[in-house]
Amino acid sequence: MSVIAGIAVAAAGLVLMFGAVWLWQLRTANAGMIDPVWAAGLGAIAVFAGVAGNGAGLNRSLVAMGGGVWGMRLALHLWCRNAAGPEDARYQRFRDEWGVAAPRNFFWFFQLQAVVALLLAIAFFVPAWSAQSASAASAAGAVLVWVIAVAGEALADRQLARFVARPSNHGQVCREGMWRYSRHPNYFFECVHWFAYTVLSIRLPFGWLTLAPPLLMAWLLMKVSGIPLLEAHLARTRAGYDDYLRSTSALVPWPPRRK
Question: What is the pTM of this model?
Answer without folding.
Answer: 0.89
